[in-house]
Structure formats: C-alpha cells, structure tokens
Amino acid sequence: MSTFLFTDAHDDFRASVRSFSQSRLAPGYMARASSSEFFWDTYRELGRQGLLGLGVSEENGGQGADLITVGIACEEIAGADYNAAFTVFNASVAGGMLEKNLQPGLREKWLPGVLSGELLTGLALTEPESGSDAQAMRMKATRVEGGWLLNGEKTSSSLAAHAHGLVVFAKTSQDGGTRSVTAFFVPLDAPGITRHALNDIGFKPIGRAAVAFEDVFVPDENLMGEVGRGFQMVMGEFDYTRSLLGLMCYGSAQAAIDMTVAYAKQRKAFGQPIGRFQGVSFPLAEHATYLEGVKWLSYHALALRMAGRPHTKEAAMIKWWGPQAAVRAIHDCIVLHGHVAYSEDLPLQQLLRDVSGLEIGDGTPQIQKMIVAREMFGREYLPYAAPKATS
C-alpha cells in the first residue's frame, strides 16, 4: 500500500490552481464547450501558468513536477472546465513522450511550443478496424531511403483536428506481435495527409478526428524510440493516463455534486429545502462515496508509479469505474435539479456529454475489466489464451 500524504507544496499548488480555474476557466466553460473551435487563447494562458509543462523536466523547459502535482492540476481544472483539463492532461502525457523519445534536434524544435501553448500534439493509435485490439492495426511504415513511407488511416484521435503534429503508431513488420509496431512523430502539414473532424455530442473543442496517410514521408530523425518498440512505448503510458483520467472524472463530477448540494439547500418544496428529503440527500451521499473512492484510488496509483511499483490493475480499475461513477453522478444531479437542468442555462448537460466520452476513450470498460481479471487470475485465464496442455 502507498502511504503518501499531500505536502504543504501540494496544498499550496491546489489552492493556486483552484483560484485560477474558478476565476479564469469556469465562467467561459459553456461557451467554449459548445464550439468546435479550439480555445487557443485559453490554451496559451494555461501555458503561461506553467500548467502545460508539469510533467516535463526543468532542464527541457517544464516544471519538473511530481505525478501527484499533475494529478491535482487535472482534478482542479476539470472541476471548472473539463476540456481545458484534457489539454493539460494531454500536454503532460504527450510532452513527456516527446521529451523522452524525440531526438534532441526535433525535441528542441517542438517541445518549447508544446509547453507554451503555441503548438498542439496528440497520439494516433486507434484505427477504423482496430480499437481495443491495437495489435491488429493496418497502418504500415515502409522503409525507404532516408526514412519511411506511412500508409493507412487513424481515427478517433483527440486534438487531431487542430494539432500540428501527432505521435503515429504503424507496423514496420508484418510478423505480428508486439514487436511489429513503431512510433513516429509526424508533422500534420506533411504532404499526403488529410484530416476529417468528427461531429461529437461532447468534447467538441478538443477536435477528435480521422487522419489518412497516403505515401507520407517521415525522415529517420522522426523515429521515436527504437524500431519495433512502439507498442511497449504506448502501453507503458496507459497506466499513467488512466490514473489522471480518474481524477478528471472525479473533479468534474464533484463540481456537479457541489452545485446540486447548493441548489438543494435553497430550493424549497412542501415548505422546506429539498435537501432535507432523503430522496435527494441519499443519492448525493452515495455518489460522493463512490467518487471519493475514485479519487483516492487514482492518487494511490500515481504514488505507486512514483515509487516504481506495479499499478496496472489499479489503473484499469480507475478507468472502468471512474467514468461510470462520474456519468451516473452527473446524471442524477440533472434529475435532482429538475427541469432547470434540462437546458443550457446550467452546465450539467454539457458536462454529462463531455465526460461520457471517457467511458470509451483510452480503453473500454470491457478491456479494463479483462486487465483486472488478468492481474487477479493470471494471463493463462484470458479468453484468448491458448489452453495449457494436460498430461
């Protein structure tokens, strides 16, 4: 078990981010969330606050913050603007990948812009015919003189509609298995790339998109890590991303609960505040309990990662449970507000549409439960495992 406690520095950072988020982000959340335009001014402001470089070392222009600090930022910003929190999450994860895996010249060219909010980057892993089954990808990278030619299509790539570059995963070998996938950093102004933005019900300014690659040349210097090690690269990040996403779920849903508690204290029915009725207070008490579990399991997983200890099971638990708990809580907050919440006068319906996407993205509940079961039973009990021979 991890035994971490928030330090005074963590508490000070939380207070600072909360003040910034509530004063600068919360008032414009609805306007930004309803538009498919990316919020560049807000994003640059996040960069000026140092919130886009939390997970990057000071040597390379970041804040060099620990993982708990990154989690606090995701939690607090999500309580004011879920989509802004996603960009902080993305910058911490993608920025870290660029720092660790880009060659020095390319890193110096791209990383400062990512940290300042001038450049957007993202990941391109999912394909039309391979989502959860990532090893079934069809995107190919063919060796040519001086680099590689990429051919194929990626889809459901967050930020790809607005991004300047993507970390693209492609097969460099048809042998199959985890050693057949390689990661490349691809500027999206390269010839042969076309993008198609997806019309989502939420998450609109984030710009989820499909990206097609037709004979796109990528020079050798854009290779990230080693040939054949791309799958390991991205799988190693999932335990981190899923822990942070749990805190985004918590922050968003807790904001909805806080709003509903305040409403239930002043809204009167049958001569008294509706908060006195157990039909109102008990559901909120239940959701608060479930969400508190999401919060602390998320910080527990981050603490395990900081200590270099396994946390795959915990991260998978967070990923299936956190979004589900958040969506159910926000839904009940809408119901408890009554007709006033079934409009755009309150942010609850927008929050429900934004957060619900996390039930699918970054790993479905079914895959996460399979991971938890694998960690409990052993790999040989997976449904696709070859049966052991019996004597």
TrEMBL record:
The keyword Cell division does not apply. Its cofactor is FAD. Pfam families: Acyl-CoA_dh_1, Acyl-CoA_dh_M, Acyl-CoA_dh_N. Residues 123-216 form the Acyl-CoA oxidase/dehydrogenase middle domain. It comes from the Bacteria. Residues 228-376 form the Acyl-CoA dehydrogenase/oxidase C-terminal domain. Keywords: FAD, Flavoprotein, Oxidoreductase. GO terms for molecular function: acyl-CoA dehydrogenase activity; flavin adenine dinucleotide binding. Transmembrane segments: none annotated. Residues 7-118 form the Acyl-CoA dehydrogenase/oxidase N-terminal domain. SUPFAM superfamilies: Acyl-CoA dehydrogenase C-terminal domain-like, Acyl-CoA dehydrogenase NM domain-like. Belongs to the acyl-CoA dehydrogenase family. This is Cyclohexanecarboxyl-CoA dehydrogenase. It comes from Blastococcus tunisiensis.
